[in-house]
Amino acid sequence: MEAGNHTDVSEFLLLGLTEDPELQPLIFRLFLSMYLVTILGNLLIILAVSSDPHLHTPMYIFLSNLSFTDICISTTTIPKMLANIQAQDQSITYTGCLSQFFCELAQVLKLACSDTLINIILVHFLFTILGASSVSAIIFSYTRIVCSLLRIPSTGKKYKAFSTCGSHLLVVSLFYGTGFGVYISSVLTDSPGNSAVASVMYTVVPQMLNPFIYSLRNRDMKEALRKIINRRKIC
Question: Which residue ranges traverse the bilayer (predicted)?
Fold first, then answer.
């Protein structure tokens, strides 16, 4: 067997938002609250859609699938973050890191001992292609939606539809804006702290806001939730 240098990575250290120990309890309570709101809000949507036959339509089934996805995304990252904050331990195993659907490649590439220029170019090229195609699809979709809304005769219904679309665009802008900012900042500056904050903004906040924007403002959804609550009271 040939002799050589071998390096096996057994664990990584997660980048925290701050190293100030006095702020750790505040951050723990903040993310715990956000996680509970995310789980509760999305579970209510899934429960409402599954229990009310009137909501067994493609739109509401899509919303329940979105809620399930939001729960999964939040659960793969936030509980580990909370456990690390509570234990004052930033380590995560290699397997645990892979099992999360989440890694800032720009930060990982900085750990490599070899030249990573080709890798960095490839990462940003793919990010540009995927980001541009998805943003273009969203812009095209909303152009068609706005054209349809302008033909609605009722001013009240038109305002309600524009309000929902505006809220959705706000969350989409938050997701893509912060995601785009992470990769731009990794090229122009070396600020891991700013990247960590931006990563939180597009992996935690949208999943918490989606139930309020897509469903809990919807009249049919609120009626379904009211039936569930009244049923519980009767029981």
Answer: 26-47, 117-140, 161-184, 196-216
All domains of the chain, ordered by start, with CATH?
14-105+115-234 (1.20.1070.10)
Q: How far apart are CA 176 and CA 128, in angstroms?
A: 12
**Average pLDDT in the chain:** 77
Distance of CA 173 to the CA centre of its chain: 12
Distance (Å, whole) CA 188 – CA 215: 39
SS3 21: coil
Res 73 pLDDT > 80: yes
Q: How long is the chain?
A: 235
Nearest to 193 by CA among 16, 30, 25, 12: 16
**Rounded Cα–Cα distance for residues 235 and 224 (Å):** 17
Spell out a b/e string for 53-83, using b for 16 or more CB atoms within 10 Å of the CB, else e: eebeeeebeebbebbeebbebbeebbebbbe
58-87 and 24-51 helices cross at what angle (nearest 10)?
160
pLDDT tens across 4-13, in order? Answer: 555 566 676 6
What's at 131, amino acid-wise? G
pTM: 0.71
| pLDDT tens per residue across span 211-226 | 877 666 677 787 888 8
Q: How many CB atoms lie within 10 A of CB 2?
A: 3
Q: In whole angstroms, what is the distance from residue 13 CA to residue 32 CA?
A: 21
